[in-house]
Amino acid sequence: MTDKRTITVTVNGASHTKEVPVRITLADFIRYELGLTGTHLGCEHGVCGACTILLDGQSARSCLMLAVQADGRDVLTVEGIAPGPDTLHPLQEAFRDNHGLQCGFCTPGMLTTLLEFLRDNPDPTEQEVRVAISGNLCRCTGYQGIVLAALDAAKRMKAARA
Amino acid sequence: MKPPAFQYHDPKTLAEAVGLLSTLDNAKLLAGGQSLMPMLNMRFVLPDHVIDLNRVEGLSGIKESGGALEIGAMTRQRDLEFSDLVKAKCPLLHLAIMHIGHRQTRNRGTIGGSLCHLDPAAELVSVAMAHDATVTVAGPNGTREIAFADFPAGYLTPAIELNEIVTTIRIPLWPAGHKAAFIEFARRHGDFAIVSAAALLQIDNGKIARASLTVGGVAVAPVRAAEVENAITGQAPSSELFAKACESCRSFEAMADIHASAEYRQHLAAVLSRRALEKAAGLADNAPWNRAH
Fold it and tell me: Coil, strand or helix: which one is B124?
């Protein structure tokens, strides 16, 4: 009973048409069918936040969606955040400069989550940042560097817009 | 942790969805997926068919009609969170939404999915109970309405037939100027509440004209504290009144699990009920527990 479907999904601006088993998650589609292993899988039941992607600009846990549900939709993964191969996004620069990561496992989910958050709330308080990343588990940093990075990124992104 | 094999169906109309649900054996409806997908990944459920409601037309939307909010079952929690209509007319729903999971899950999770999953601690279930909501379901023989007091049939079990789909939630509105508070006790922000309390108060000329108090996370489904509601109606709101009345919450039938004993849940039921009423009545503005989260 391997039901399959052909789907077309835009990922980081590129359109992909693939035949996939209907039961595979969007996360596994991104990692195994497209080879984009930047999206990490920690818990596979919607608790750790590492697999967060943007679906039509809104954050979602890619382990809690079927790949077939993304048919016709636009997905952004961590690989699509930087403006070019040699340039980092200000959010990524802020993570690098503020020790916003150590092992890097949670980082893709943190970046996608914060990308949506800072778009909707460009001038957040520390408390708002902490609530925004409350669905993303980090076991290295104690979150301090991540919070600092998010606040710093807000400043950098504001300066970039000015 | 991968979902088991199943056949996938994505109907475009409600009639098509009802038809599939009526004819397929061992089928599960997929709404926002924030409960069903983990259950599939962990193989707690093994459906032969998954019927995805995400492409069904006309199941989402928020509108005011005849003194009530009518909310489509597939309306995302995110859309409720950012709805000016909800914020202005149904403050309890707005307050409760902010406690549901995280932004990533609210972007996908739906009100109908939450009500049908019927987690004992689910915020939307408490709001529906507090507001005496009505649930409309569609089946092969047409639609019917269920009063929310009759909706929970047991733990994680709504009182709907296997071939019925929840289509609309109708939330009767309280008069403009009524007070609302939603508080919960959880280990971490966004976790399932161990116990939650939802309070609605209508205060006229310094007296409580109408009260609604709902406690979630204690019994298999949220319960209305009718004894407290009766005790405080007609009285002038005060911390002493609320503290005395809420003692009756200690006699609720309570679940025990790895997170808390039954006795602890009963204790929290009394404390959080008092705090929710105090907060709604504006008596707790300086309380240490009453910070913006």
Answer: helix
Least Cα distance to B114 among B205, A73, A71, B105 occurs for B105
pLDDT digits (tens, 9 = 90+) for B20-55: 999 999 999 999 999 999 999 999 999 999 999 999
* CATH code, B25: 3.30.465.10
Token readout for B246 is 């809420």
Query: What counts of helices (H) and strands (E) characterise chain A?
Result: 5, 5
pLDDT digit string (tens) for B69-112? 999 999 999 999 999 999 999 999 999 999 999 999 999 999 99
Chain B interface includes A54 (CB < 8 A): no
ipTM over 0.85: yes
Nearest Cα residue in chain B from A127: B293
Claim to verify: residue A106 and residue A39 sit in the same structural domain: no
Residue B165 shares a structural domain with residue B237:
no
Q: Do B37 and A113 touch (CB under 8 A)?
A: no
Instruction: For residues B79 and B106, give the distance between their C-alpha atoms in angstroms, rounded to a whole number.
Output: 9
Structural domain includes residue A40: yes
DSSP H or E segment with residue B154 = strand B152-154
Residue B241 lies in a domain: yes
Q: Do residue B99 and residue B239 come from a single domain?
A: no
Report the pLDDT value the prediction gives residue A161, as an integer from 0 to 100. Answer: 87
Considering only CB atoms, B7 lies closest to which of A1, A25, A132, namely A1
For CA atoms A60, B118, B67, B213, the dihedral sign is: negative
Of A1, A69, A135, the CB nearest to B5: A1
Q: Do B8 and A61 touch (CB under 8 A)?
A: no
Evaluate whether A153 touches A90 at the Cβ level (below 8 Å). yes
Nearest to B243 by CA among B226, B263, B233, B228: B228
How many A/B residue pairs have CB atoms within 8 Å? 99
The 3-state DSSP class for residue A125 equals coil
B188 contacts on A by Cβ (under 8 Å): 134
Strand A52-55, strand B68-72: pairing:
unpaired
Do B245 and B265 belong together in one domain?
Answer: yes
Q: Are B157 and B254 part of one and the same domain?
A: no
**Any residues with CB less than 8 A from the CB of B247 and at least 6 apart, and which?**
B270
> B262 and B246, same structural domain?
yes
Residue B1 belongs to domain spanning = 1-51+61-173
B268 in the same domain as B204: yes
Contact criterion met (CB below 8 Å) for B167 and B71: no
> Helices (DSSP H) in B44-158: which residue ranges?
77-81, 84-89, 91-97, 103-106, 111-117, 123-130
pTM above 0.90, yes or no: yes
For residue A72, the SS3 value is: coil
